[in-house]
UniProtKB/TrEMBL annotation:
NCBIfam families: arsC_related (TIGR01617). This is Arsenate reductase. Belongs to the ArsC family. Gene3D superfamilies: Glutaredoxin (3.40.30.10). InterPro entries: Arsenate_reductase-like, Thioredoxin-like_sf, Tscrpt_reg_Spx/MgsR. It comes from the Bacteria. It holds the Pfam family ArsC. PANTHER family: ARSENATE REDUCTASE, PROTEIN YFFB.
């Protein structure tokens, strides 16, 4: 089963959800606006991808932080804490499939990883 985490109105999340629907892959969607990410989940993900990859430094939320706040995000602990405070800063979507974690949307990666038999 595919688990997908993100924010419904995020364009990248929409692309991923559309792709899953188009390829008839069933999934469970977890909306950070309704189900904020928990520390345990962020820690679990960071064992498979680095905590740095989880922090979306290209997004609006990151840019709204002060320079001091940005500079204080320098290790696992501070990275997880900022993500707990600002779930919208988590790179999206996050897809869990089997033992894999996929970040963002990439058609080729999805095709090679998620193409399941119907």
């Amino acid at each position: 089963m595919v688990e997908i985490y993100g924010i419904k109105n995020c364009n990248t999340v929409k692309k991923a959800l559309d792709w899953l629907a188009e390829h008839e892959i069933s999934y469970t969607f977890h909306d950070f606006k309704k189900e904020p990410a928990r520390e345990e989940k962020l820690t679990e993900w960071s064992k498979k991808v680095s905590w740095e990859q989880l922090v979306n430094k290209k997004g609006t939320t990151w840019r709204k932080l002060s320079k001091e706040e940005q500079d204080n995000v320098k290790d696992f602990s501070s990275g997880i804490q900022i993500l707990l405070q600002h779930n919208s800063m988590i790179k999206r979507p996050i897809i869990e499939y089997n033992d894999l974690i996929l970040l963002g949307f990439d058609d080729n990666v999805y095709l090679s990883t998620l193409k399941l038999p119907h």
